[in-house]
# Entry
Amino acid sequence: MSPISPIPVTDPTDPRLAPYLTVRERDLVGRGDGFIAEGEVVLRVLLSPDARARAASILVAENRLARLAPLLAAAPPGTPVYAATQAVMDAVVGFHIHRGVLAHGVRPPDPGVAALLAGLPPRALVVALYGIGNHDNMGGLFRNAAAFGADAVLLDARCCDPLYRKAIRVSVGAALKVPFARAAPGEDLLATLTWAGFEAFALSPAGAAIVSDLRRPARAAVLLGAEGPGLPPDVLAQATAVAIPMATGWDSLNVAAASAIVLHQLAGR
# Structure
């Protein structure tokens, strides 16, 4: 590691800060090959050797520089580190960025579902998501996938972006580490999982199997749907439907909480 040389910026319209302009509005329409990472915890993951994405630049409030110096020194050589007053940083971002730390990241290429599965070891655990549109849930799902050692996360075409700023933050950076691939529109995730030798466990309140009875096969896939609609009926019909027993009057958990229970069961076995 070598000491950083922050680049002072005093003008919110400085073209070097263009990736950080009006963060919320641009997050909503998507950033193509880029994304914004927010906060010290997430930046630490982004700069770690096993991160799948890389930082193109970093923007830090001046009053955070001294404390963050050891972390910023871990950035790859040549990564610009811009330093601004809190007022300038807020003007650039479009709201009060109280964490005082942002990075503009470059997302890794999507390998495609089949290629990602083909590259996994003979014993593997994956999470397949259908229609997850809530970024808090997406972040929680990636955090749980990382915590219980899942090898990959698969997304259907309707899922929201795991590299949306809030999803990354809720995942505490796990979305930057866990490999993932998005299915093309019309692609059958379950058929690809079957082709790759995975046994599929579909979470549903109507499941005939009980989560505590599950035994881990060599290749296991946990299938989870959006809260409310759940998994598509054709997916449930082709997989082993698994229920988590509930107290009387309740039939389901938040999807991230449900994922933690089933992943713990399979990881422990």
